[in-house]
C-alpha cells in the first residue's frame, strides 16, 4: 500500500512536468502565431489548452483522493498541497498562452504587433518559454538553487515589459490606440506568464525546505552578512 501511495505521489509530479511542457510549448507557438499572423497555428494553441485543463482536473482529483484516503502529514502533505497550487499556476499559464493566440486570431489577417516591436515580443516569448522550461526542470530535480535563480531571470522579462511601455509613451508612436491596447495586453500576458513560472519554482523551494523562497533568501543574506563581518 505504501509503495502504491508513493507511486501516486510520483505520478502527480509527472503530471506537473507534463503541464509545464505543454504550456511552455503553447507560449512559444502563440508567439509565432501573433508575429506571423498564422491563424492555423493560433487555432491549434487555443484548442490545445483543453488538454492542460484536463490534466489539471485529473491532478486535482488524484490529489484530493490521496488526501482523503491517506491523510498524509508532514512532508507528504506538503507535496500534495503544493502540487495543487502549482497545477493552478500552470493552468493559468496555459490560459495566458491562449490569450496571446486569441489576439492573433482576432487581428487576422493583420498582425497585432507593429514591425518595430517584433523583436521585443519575440524576445519576451522566447524568455517566457525558457522560464517555463526551467520551472519544469525544477519540478523534476527539486534543485533549490536553480529555483531561486528564476526570480533573477524574471528581471529580464520586467525589463522587456518596461521597454514596451517606453514605446507606447513615445511621442513618435504612430500605430493608433487599438494597436497600443493590443501591445499593452501582450506585455501583460508575457509578464504574468513569467510570474507563474517563478511561482512554480518558489513552491518547489517550499516543498523541499519547508520555507518560503523569500524567507530563505533573506536568511541566506543575513548569514552572508555575518560571515563577511
Mean pLDDT: 90
Rounded to an integer in angstroms, the radius of gyration calculated over CA atoms is 20 Å
> Strand portion, in percent?
under 5%
Low-pLDDT segments, ≥5 res: 222-229
Helix/strand-derived class? mainly alpha
Helix fraction, binned, reads: over 70%
End-to-end gap:
52 Å
Provide key terms for this protein:
7 helices, globular, single chain, mainly alpha, about 90% helix
Please describe what this structure looks like.
This protein is 88% helix and 0% strand. It has helices spanning 2-36, 39-70, 74-107, 118-141, 144-169, 176-209, 213-228. The longest helix is centred in the first third of the chain and has 35 residues, at 2-36.
Explain briefly what this protein structure is:
By secondary structure, the chain is mainly alpha-helical. 88% of the residues lie in helices and 0% in strands.
Which helices and strands occur, and which strands form pairs?
Blueprint: H1 2-36, H2 39-70, H3 74-107, H4 118-141, H5 144-169, H6 176-209, H7 213-228
Helix pairs in contact: 1-2, 1-3, 1-4, 2-3, 3-6, 4-5, 4-6, 5-6
